[in-house]
Amino acid sequence: MRPDRAPCHRIAWGRIDARTPSCAVALLVGLLALIGTNRELGVAQAPARAQTPIVVRLATLAPRRSVWARALERWDRELQARTAGRVRLQIFAGGAAGDEVTVVRKLRAGQLDAAALTTTGLGHVVRPVFVLQAPGLLRSYAQLDAVRRELAPELEAQFAQAGLHLVGWADVGLARLFSAHRLQRPADLVRTRPWAWRDNPIFEEVLREAGARGVALALPEVLVGLQTGRIDTFAASALAAVGLQWYPYARFVSEEPIGVVLGALVVRADRWAALPVEAREAFAEAAARHSAQGQQAVREQDERAYRAILARGLEAVPTGPARAEWEALGRRARARLTGRLWPAELLARVERIAAAHAGR
């Protein structure tokens, strides 16, 4: 870490505490607001009776004793109280259940019942979800909201076919490029050592098209990679970069977003069906009620995180002068990924919607 840079854990604002080094920090902000973590859950009180409780095994990469894991624990206590102990959570925090691909495998095998997943994990269940992070396509919340409104019903139906009930979507923030090098045009990536998430093929394709070579790492390996110099460039939202304690190892951050990061909370369909009716209904109502509020909270907190890291010394690099080059890079990468991650027809639909909401 640079000696003139204050340690990441000293930056805090609102309810965000940067001592939470989790790959799902920002996602959990939205998810916990979405599902409700206090008495607003509103599950009807059930008459007490002796029976084996329904245990919902939930995996999250948020670390134990973090604010987000504690919030899930509060939700668990509330859920038990409102159902007279008939429903409870067993929380596997801090990646105890493995990375997102491992969590997906355990969901399929019935070893887990629920999970908070980013697009990376979701895309390993329903491949077309990756289109929401197609390179260079969705770079504003207006575009994301419009695309998600149109695609959500069919994507949720595909999750149902895969045996998962998608409880609700959540935002993670605007993705930006962080680096030890000043990156203004795609060619600048060639002289970097960028992180390529091992389980996400999208950024790897972008790097390949730019002529750069990514360093494949699992998400929990990124911090050590930055500390040792194995990598010096990464893509993340500002909120995640602070929460994961990655930002001190960068000197520059792109001024313009390169995408929007999102995720969702999913529950195995059979476990969802096993919940008491009143608990299931109240859970769904709370999700709908808190969805917009949670998304807005994450968006505001991500913007605060971006302003905070600029105040701590990172330099914002305007990529606007090379916008045509970045857009051409995105088109080439999208073309190579079409057929592998999403069908051409779906990409065309998303491109039309994104174009109609560009600049909003």
Task: Describe the 3D structure.
It contains 12 helices and 12 strands. With 360 residues, the protein is of the alpha/beta class. The two termini are 37 Å apart. 51% of the residues are buried. The model is unreliable at 1-49 (pLDDT under 50).
Average pLDDT, all residues: 83
CATH topology: D-Maltodextrin-Binding Protein, domain 2
Helix content: 40-55%
Structural class call reads: alpha/beta
Poorly predicted ranges (pLDDT <50, ≥5 residues)?
Answer: 1-49
Query: Number of helix segments?
Result: 12
CATH homologous superfamily classification: Bacterial extracellular solute-binding protein, family 7
Query: Total domains, how many?
Result: 1
**Describe the biggest sheet?**
8 strands, mixed
What's the overall geometry?
A: globular
CATH class: Alpha Beta
- Gyration radius, to the nearest Å? 20 Å
Could you give the order of the helices and strands? EEHEHEHEHHEEHEHEHEEHHEHH
CATH architecture descriptor name: 3-Layer(aba) Sandwich
Approximately what portion of the residues adopt beta-strand conformation?
A: 15-25%
**Got a strand count?**
12
End-to-end distance: 37 Å
Write a brief structural summary.
By secondary structure, the protein is of the alpha/beta class. It has helices at 25-35, 67-82, 100-109, 119-123, 141-161, 201-210, 222-228, 238-243, 269-274, 277-311, 323-337, 344-356, and strands at 12-13, 16-17, 54-59, 87-92, 114-118, 164-179, 195-197, 215-217, 233-237, 252-254, 259-268, 315-317.
